[in-house]
Amino acid sequence: MLGKLNVVLASTLARRGSVGGGLAIAALAALLLVPADAHALPLFARQTGQNCIACHAGGQFPMLTPYGRKFKLTGYTIGSRTPIPFAMMLQGGMTKVANTTNGSVNDPNGSGGNGALPSDNFSKDGLPYLAFASFFAGGKITDNLGLFGQWTFANYDHQGDDSHWHSHSTSDQFDLRYADRFISADHDLIIGASLNNNIGTTDVWNTFNSPFQTVPTPIALSSSLQPNVTYGPVTKPLITGGLVAGGVGAYAYWNNLIYVELASYQSANGVFSFMSQGIANDSTTKLKGGNPYWRVALNKEWGANSAMIGMHGLDARVYSDPTDTTSPIVHDTDVGIDGQYQYILDPHTIAAQFTYTHEKQSYDDALWNPANPGYLGAAANPSNTLDYIKLNGTYIYRAKYGASLSYVSVKGSADSILYPTQAFGSGSNRPDTRVWVPEVFWTPVQYLRLGVQYYAYTQFNGGNSGYDGSSSRSAKDNNTLFMYFWAAF
Question: pTM of the entire structure?
């Protein structure tokens, strides 16, 4: 129970990435998946009759253009309802970690604390894999009602006790919107409401809730260790982590200038359970009651330029044990500022984003206070903080060739129980991580993207050399080369 609580406290801050991948498979994917007619666009593109670059900056998901933001805010209803409102997506690739051997994880007798061999911890390292297949349904339902729905099959969802990978399918993203638009000579007002299962689903700027500006991210190769070797910071504020929960909210967008959104999120069970189907009960974040989320933004569009400055926040009460709604509570308060700039004028697309989020985690007495009769020893402090910074710049030429550079930093208060010294743990009892992610990508035809990322760590889990306090493993040992493909049809 105690070990589970430690993992759950950390996992409320961790984001499960989606995966992209392998150049070796990409040529075959190009032949099999790309329609012969270049104008036969998937899902929303078929509905609007527009090319991908109309909605996505430089044609690259998930960056939305002003038109793409308007399409989403008006409830996915622009255009004519298509008789085939479906699409599919495949992602795969190959990862190569700089160092997969280390004293604390290379000991079959378990003296490093886990008893796992490198083949267990990095079983897919250097091998191509097909990671995800997603099925999409949605688009225009009525003039005011539209849907974005995604169901995903994860080919490498988790490892069993035998170290073999097991697949799993689950409800991924769901966003049902009602919207109306009022236009006069002087005013343009969009109002709407959303029923969704993920805070990141609703935002039209994709700044504070998107891991990087790319479609895929590599899978964690090590499931036998806690925390896992993952890509980007292991620990993040809850609002940035793709919170799976049932949400109901309303928004307004006035004169392409001011955006306001208010919502409430609760556990995706009961009437909301269809939005979390397939997700294990002990792996989802369980919230107590309704938990408010808010978003405000000031937007400006002129010529080929657009810019946004905004704020975001979440006040969430999370059960420390997701299987027990009588368990003690972790109270997460997230507040942040974010911004975006875009220049879109053929053949050039330039985009830059930043976000800063501060989180305070406050714990019920039983989680941290030894004097409490129900003491569980899940944290050493009554409260902790996290500061999350993400910067990204992207350039795309002719919607085909692109490069980006991202930087992510997480700094947190020290807690010897929440961030223990262990293999791949934190020798300084802090989650502090810094990573640079350069990327190059190529979109030879619509719906096929090939790319290469490199994750370069200057700090990992609170340190550099010997960061976990139990081995000589350094932050740069986790550096990862990631080749991917993304295809849709």
Answer: 0.85
